[in-house]
Amino acid sequence: MRPFLFSIPVFGRSFGLPTYGLLLAIAFLAALGLARKRAAQAGLPAESVLDLWIAALVSGILGAKLLLYAIDYRYYIDNPRAILAGLQSAGVFYGGFVAAVVTCLVLVARRGLPGWKIADAAAPAVALGQAIGRLGCFAAGCCFGRPSDLPWAVTFTDPEAHRLTGVPLDVPLHPSQIYESILDLALFGVLIFLSRRPRADGQLFLWYLLLYALLRGAVEFTRGDPRGDLLGASTSQIIAVGAALVAGFFLWTRRRPRASARNA
Predict the structure, then answer these.
(1) Which of 196, 235, 258, 263 has its CB surrounded by the most CB atoms within 10 Å?
(2) Residue 125 has what pLDDT?
(3) Which residues of the chain register pLDDT less than 50?
(4) What are the CA-CA distances from residue 46 to residues 16, 39, 49, 100, 236 (Å)?
């Protein structure tokens, strides 16, 4: 809707503040603040959480961009200038998520930190950050939806948004970014509710992984941007199925000892 919050002409060129970048920064700071608060409540060292969060941010951005380019590599080979435009889009979330998780696992193992507890502290914060970050996607025009005749369909008209993200102009589209933002906010609320109930370490993060996979898989049906395709499913849907299966397996195995103890 508004790729740049404002633009300033300097020596014949226009320099602006990207709305997506601003909202991404707000999302990062809001999520970091919540994660540090929850870490302190759990008795975890706040400095370690900050280090992990920064490492996750950097690796997550790189992973999201790399998967974006990998999915549609032929297009970027034929249009190398589009690589620069891709730097201004969100990338593929699951690429960033996997990269961030692997990075954090390495750091947690090296420092001997309680990984499951840290993951639980971070889970609601990640959902909150995603809810805010998707508003940035909506402003930029990336992650756009399929054509729609629903009353709440949105129409992009800014040529700059089309140039940067390829979003169709003057065509009513599903507001897929808003769908996910609302669902991410609901997921944040669910995780906060679950966090107030006693459970084994790691279960809150696993619930995040499972529930996000379900909501992301559903939102993908409304997406219209190129995201790869295999057997009629997008790359993110395929990864979401794998994430849901992994989360479901670990939720089952981590609950089984408690059930056995009750039956003993």
Answers:
(1) 235
(2) 94
(3) 256-257, 259-264
(4) 35, 6, 5, 18, 32
- What is the number of other CB atoms lying within 10 angstroms of the CB of residue 123? 28
pLDDT at 257 (0 to 100): 45
What pLDDT was estimated at residue 75? Answer: 65
Q: 103 with 122: CB under 8 angstroms?
A: no
CA dist., res. 167 & res. 183, Å (int): 22
pTM above 0.90, yes or no: no
Residue-level pLDDT at 47: 75
Q: Cα 217 vs. chain centroid, distance in angstroms? A: 13
Identify the pLDDT of residue 140: 87
The pLDDT, as a whole number, for residue 260 is 41
Tokens 């889970």: give the residue.
Answer: 123
Domain edges within the chain:
17-257
Strand pairing category for 154-155 and 4-10? unpaired
- What the block records as the tokens of 75 is 């297009």
Q: What is the DSSP string of 5-54?
A: EEEEEETTEEEEEEHHHHHHHHHHHHHHHHHHHHHHHTT--HHHHHHHHH
64, exposed or middle or buried, with CB in 10 Å at 0-12, 13-18, 19+? buried
Based on the number of CB atoms within 10 Å of its own CB, is 141 exposed (0-12), middle (13-18) or buried (19 or more)? Answer: buried
